[in-house]
Amino acid sequence: MRRRQIERRQKQRRRRQMVAAAERLALFILVTAAVLFMVGSFLVERKRENLETLSLPDWCQEAYLPVNPYSRPGTKRTKVKNIVVHYVANPKTTARENRNYFAGMAEAPESERRSVSSHFIIGLDGEILCCVPVQEVAYANYPRNEDTISIECCHPDSSGKFTQETQDSLVKLVSWLCQSLDLRASDVIRHYDVSGKDCPKYYVEHEEAWSALRDEIADQIK
Protein backbone atom coordinates (compact mmCIF):
# COMPACT_ATOMS: atom_id res chain seq x y z
CA MET A 1 0.00 0.00 0.00
CA ARG A 2 2.73 2.43 1.00
CA ARG A 3 4.66 1.54 -2.13
CA ARG A 4 1.69 2.48 -4.33
CA GLN A 5 1.36 5.80 -2.48
CA ILE A 6 5.04 6.55 -3.11
CA GLU A 7 4.68 5.70 -6.80
CA ARG A 8 1.55 7.86 -7.04
CA ARG A 9 3.34 10.82 -5.44
CA GLN A 10 6.27 10.32 -7.79
CA LYS A 11 3.95 10.37 -10.81
CA GLN A 12 2.24 13.51 -9.52
CA ARG A 13 5.63 15.18 -9.01
CA ARG A 14 6.69 14.28 -12.54
CA ARG A 15 3.43 15.66 -13.93
CA ARG A 16 3.91 18.92 -12.03
CA GLN A 17 7.47 19.16 -13.33
CA MET A 18 6.30 18.55 -16.90
CA VAL A 19 3.56 21.17 -16.54
CA ALA A 20 6.05 23.65 -15.09
CA ALA A 21 8.50 22.94 -17.93
CA ALA A 22 5.75 23.38 -20.51
CA GLU A 23 4.73 26.68 -18.91
CA ARG A 24 8.35 27.93 -18.95
CA LEU A 25 8.69 26.92 -22.60
CA ALA A 26 5.44 28.67 -23.51
CA LEU A 27 6.58 31.80 -21.67
CA PHE A 28 9.95 31.68 -23.46
CA ILE A 29 8.21 31.35 -26.83
CA LEU A 30 5.88 34.26 -26.07
CA VAL A 31 8.71 36.51 -24.92
CA THR A 32 10.86 35.57 -27.93
CA ALA A 33 7.97 36.22 -30.31
CA ALA A 34 7.32 39.61 -28.68
CA VAL A 35 10.99 40.59 -28.94
CA LEU A 36 11.18 39.50 -32.59
CA PHE A 37 7.99 41.42 -33.36
CA MET A 38 9.37 44.56 -31.70
CA VAL A 39 12.70 44.24 -33.52
CA GLY A 40 10.92 43.61 -36.82
CA SER A 41 8.63 46.59 -36.29
CA PHE A 42 11.62 48.77 -35.44
CA LEU A 43 13.47 47.71 -38.60
CA VAL A 44 10.39 48.25 -40.78
CA GLU A 45 9.86 51.69 -39.26
CA ARG A 46 13.52 52.60 -39.72
CA LYS A 47 13.42 51.51 -43.37
CA ARG A 48 10.26 53.55 -43.89
CA GLU A 49 11.89 56.63 -42.39
CA ASN A 50 15.04 56.08 -44.45
CA LEU A 51 12.95 55.90 -47.62
CA GLU A 52 10.94 59.00 -46.78
CA THR A 53 14.01 61.13 -46.07
CA LEU A 54 16.26 59.81 -48.85
CA SER A 55 17.64 62.54 -51.12
CA LEU A 56 19.72 62.19 -54.26
CA PRO A 57 23.52 62.40 -54.06
CA ASP A 58 25.23 65.07 -56.16
CA TRP A 59 26.46 62.49 -58.70
CA CYS A 60 22.87 61.63 -59.68
CA GLN A 61 20.99 64.00 -61.99
CA GLU A 62 17.39 64.89 -61.16
CA ALA A 63 15.39 64.39 -64.37
CA TYR A 64 11.90 63.81 -62.99
CA LEU A 65 9.12 62.93 -65.39
CA PRO A 66 5.97 65.05 -65.31
CA VAL A 67 3.25 63.43 -63.21
CA ASN A 68 0.92 61.57 -65.57
CA PRO A 69 -0.98 58.24 -65.64
CA TYR A 70 1.41 56.53 -68.08
CA SER A 71 4.92 57.00 -66.68
CA ARG A 72 4.77 58.74 -63.31
CA PRO A 73 1.47 58.20 -61.52
CA GLY A 74 2.66 60.01 -58.37
CA THR A 75 1.64 57.07 -56.18
CA LYS A 76 3.46 57.20 -52.83
CA ARG A 77 4.82 54.06 -51.19
CA THR A 78 6.43 53.29 -47.81
CA LYS A 79 8.63 50.25 -48.43
CA VAL A 80 11.28 48.87 -50.76
CA LYS A 81 12.17 45.18 -50.69
CA ASN A 82 14.26 44.80 -53.86
CA ILE A 83 16.27 46.75 -56.39
CA VAL A 84 15.64 45.51 -59.92
CA VAL A 85 18.17 45.82 -62.76
CA HIS A 86 17.00 46.15 -66.40
CA TYR A 87 18.50 46.83 -69.80
CA VAL A 88 16.79 49.28 -72.16
CA ALA A 89 16.68 46.77 -75.07
CA ASN A 90 17.45 49.59 -77.51
CA PRO A 91 21.19 49.56 -78.33
CA LYS A 92 23.17 52.81 -78.49
CA THR A 93 20.35 54.96 -77.11
CA THR A 94 21.26 57.43 -74.39
CA ALA A 95 19.90 57.81 -70.88
CA ARG A 96 18.28 61.11 -71.87
CA GLU A 97 16.61 59.58 -74.93
CA ASN A 98 15.11 56.81 -72.83
CA ARG A 99 13.99 59.31 -70.20
CA ASN A 100 12.28 61.39 -72.88
CA TYR A 101 10.60 58.28 -74.25
CA PHE A 102 9.03 57.70 -70.82
CA ALA A 103 7.97 61.33 -70.60
CA GLY A 104 6.48 61.20 -74.10
CA MET A 105 3.90 58.62 -73.04
CA ALA A 106 1.81 61.45 -71.60
CA GLU A 107 1.45 63.04 -75.07
CA ALA A 108 1.55 59.92 -77.28
CA PRO A 109 -1.42 58.92 -79.44
CA GLU A 110 -3.89 56.76 -77.54
CA SER A 111 -2.98 53.67 -79.59
CA GLU A 112 0.71 53.98 -78.60
CA ARG A 113 0.31 54.70 -74.91
CA ARG A 114 1.38 52.17 -72.30
CA SER A 115 2.51 52.26 -68.70
CA VAL A 116 6.31 52.40 -68.71
CA SER A 117 8.98 54.09 -66.58
CA SER A 118 11.93 53.50 -64.30
CA HIS A 119 13.28 55.22 -61.22
CA PHE A 120 16.80 55.48 -62.65
CA ILE A 121 18.49 55.26 -66.06
CA ILE A 122 22.25 54.80 -66.41
CA GLY A 123 23.81 55.95 -69.68
CA LEU A 124 26.61 54.56 -71.82
CA ASP A 125 29.14 56.93 -70.22
CA GLY A 126 27.95 56.18 -66.70
CA GLU A 127 25.70 59.21 -66.23
CA ILE A 128 22.78 58.53 -63.87
CA LEU A 129 19.35 60.11 -64.29
CA CYS A 130 16.60 59.86 -61.68
CA CYS A 131 13.25 59.89 -63.50
CA VAL A 132 10.89 58.99 -60.65
CA PRO A 133 11.54 59.69 -56.94
CA VAL A 134 12.22 56.48 -55.02
CA GLN A 135 9.34 57.39 -52.69
CA GLU A 136 6.95 56.89 -55.63
CA VAL A 137 5.89 53.92 -57.75
CA ALA A 138 7.40 53.45 -61.22
CA TYR A 139 6.06 51.02 -63.82
CA ALA A 140 9.04 48.83 -64.75
CA ASN A 141 8.62 45.90 -62.36
CA TYR A 142 5.05 44.67 -62.67
CA PRO A 143 3.68 42.96 -60.57
CA ARG A 144 6.22 44.26 -58.02
CA ASN A 145 5.96 47.98 -58.73
CA GLU A 146 4.79 48.75 -55.20
CA ASP A 147 7.91 47.53 -53.34
CA THR A 148 10.82 47.73 -55.79
CA ILE A 149 13.21 50.29 -57.24
CA SER A 150 13.95 49.96 -60.96
CA ILE A 151 17.20 50.79 -62.74
CA GLU A 152 17.38 50.78 -66.55
CA CYS A 153 20.86 50.47 -68.09
CA CYS A 154 21.87 51.55 -71.58
CA HIS A 155 24.09 49.27 -73.68
CA PRO A 156 26.06 49.68 -76.91
CA ASP A 157 24.93 46.59 -78.84
CA SER A 158 22.35 43.82 -79.06
CA SER A 159 24.20 41.56 -76.62
CA GLY A 160 22.91 43.75 -73.81
CA LYS A 161 26.30 43.84 -72.10
CA PHE A 162 26.89 47.07 -70.19
CA THR A 163 29.91 49.27 -70.80
CA GLN A 164 32.42 49.41 -67.96
CA GLU A 165 31.29 52.98 -67.23
CA THR A 166 27.65 51.85 -67.01
CA GLN A 167 28.52 48.92 -64.78
CA ASP A 168 30.68 51.07 -62.49
CA SER A 169 27.83 53.54 -62.04
CA LEU A 170 25.36 50.71 -61.49
CA VAL A 171 27.51 49.31 -58.67
CA LYS A 172 27.87 52.80 -57.18
CA LEU A 173 24.13 53.53 -57.35
CA VAL A 174 22.96 50.15 -56.08
CA SER A 175 25.47 50.16 -53.23
CA TRP A 176 24.31 53.61 -52.14
CA LEU A 177 20.66 52.52 -52.27
CA CYS A 178 21.38 49.37 -50.27
CA GLN A 179 23.28 51.29 -47.61
CA SER A 180 20.60 53.98 -47.43
CA LEU A 181 17.64 51.58 -47.26
CA ASP A 182 19.16 48.74 -45.17
CA LEU A 183 19.18 46.31 -48.09
CA ARG A 184 21.72 43.63 -48.97
CA ALA A 185 23.38 42.57 -52.20
CA SER A 186 21.03 39.57 -52.23
CA ASP A 187 18.12 42.04 -52.47
CA VAL A 188 19.43 43.19 -55.87
CA ILE A 189 17.68 41.16 -58.56
CA ARG A 190 17.11 41.12 -62.32
CA HIS A 191 13.86 41.89 -64.11
CA TYR A 192 14.05 38.22 -65.09
CA ASP A 193 13.73 37.25 -61.42
CA VAL A 194 10.49 39.22 -61.15
CA SER A 195 8.68 38.33 -64.37
CA GLY A 196 10.77 35.74 -66.24
CA LYS A 197 11.48 38.28 -68.97
CA ASP A 198 14.88 38.02 -70.71
CA CYS A 199 16.10 41.21 -69.01
CA PRO A 200 18.81 42.33 -68.55
CA LYS A 201 19.61 40.09 -71.50
CA TYR A 202 23.37 39.62 -71.11
CA TYR A 203 23.08 39.01 -67.38
CA VAL A 204 20.34 36.43 -67.86
CA GLU A 205 22.32 34.56 -70.50
CA HIS A 206 25.57 34.82 -68.51
CA GLU A 207 24.87 33.85 -64.92
CA GLU A 208 28.55 34.14 -64.02
CA ALA A 209 28.54 37.79 -65.06
CA TRP A 210 25.51 38.45 -62.89
CA SER A 211 27.10 36.67 -59.91
CA ALA A 212 30.28 38.70 -60.37
CA LEU A 213 28.26 41.91 -60.52
CA ARG A 214 26.46 41.10 -57.27
CA ASP A 215 29.75 40.17 -55.61
CA GLU A 216 31.12 43.56 -56.62
CA ILE A 217 28.04 45.21 -55.11
CA ALA A 218 28.46 43.23 -51.89
CA ASP A 219 32.11 44.31 -51.64
CA GLN A 220 31.16 47.93 -52.20
CA ILE A 221 28.47 47.80 -49.52
CA LYS A 222 31.02 46.53 -47.00
Structural commentary:
By secondary structure, the chain is an alpha/beta fold. The chain contains six helices and six strands. It has helices at residues 2-53, 95-104, 164-181, 191-195, 201-205, 207-221; strands spanning 61-62, 82-87, 120-122, 128-130, 148-153, 188-190. Strands 1-4-3-5-2-6 form a six-stranded mixed β-sheet, with helices on both faces. A hairpin with a 5-residue loop joins β3 and β4. The radius of gyration is 26 Å and the shape is elongated. The model has no long low-confidence stretch (mean pLDDT 91).
Count of helices? 6
Instruction: Supply the helix-strand structural class.
Output: alpha/beta
C-alpha end-to-end distance: 73 Å
- The arrangement of helices and strands along the chain is HEEHEEEHEHHH
Instruction: Report the count of strand segments.
Output: 6
Radius of gyration: 26 Å
Shape: elongated
Spans where pLDDT lies below 50 across 5 or more residues = none
Report the mean per-residue pLDDT as an integer. Answer: 91
The amount of beta strand, in percent, is 5-15%
